Amino acid sequence: MKIHLINTGKTSEKYITEGLELYRQRILRYLPVIIFDIPEMKGLKGMSFDKQKELEGRAILKQTARFDHVIVLDEKGLEFSSDEFAMHLQKIMNRGIKNLGFVTGGPFGFSKQVYDSAGERISLSRMTFPHQLVRLIFIEQLYRALTILNNEPYHHL
User: Fold this and answer.
1) pLDDT, tens digit, for every residue of 126-147?
2) Domains of the chain, earliest start first
């Protein structure tokens, strides 16, 4: 299985970029992972949030159309412990999914079309995090899940 992390907007903070690369390299021990940032939309000033989500949604759908399964990271999604997320990931792997996409949205969330096209929604927490920080938190949890599935000690350090 290949995992794709699709982010809306550029990852601009150096510590986040470095953290993403650190965990991407660690995950590569287990399976291929690709991180793709959808470029920030231009000319959004004065545009409603719904219109911005619609434009971002089109760009997201263009990227996710080739995936077998898409999961959006959304505050209203299912919540898992790290162990539960690992088991959930294993179930997805067992289904023979070839390309799994995880999508982080912009600061205003996702368009209805993105929600409708996603196979599921996962929440990292009921708390709200900056959308760029979600990328780093999620990739760490993905790495943690893979170490759990491989009976490695990282989860209990």
Assistant:
1) 898 888 899 999 999 999 999 9
2) 2-42+54-156 (3.40.1280.10)
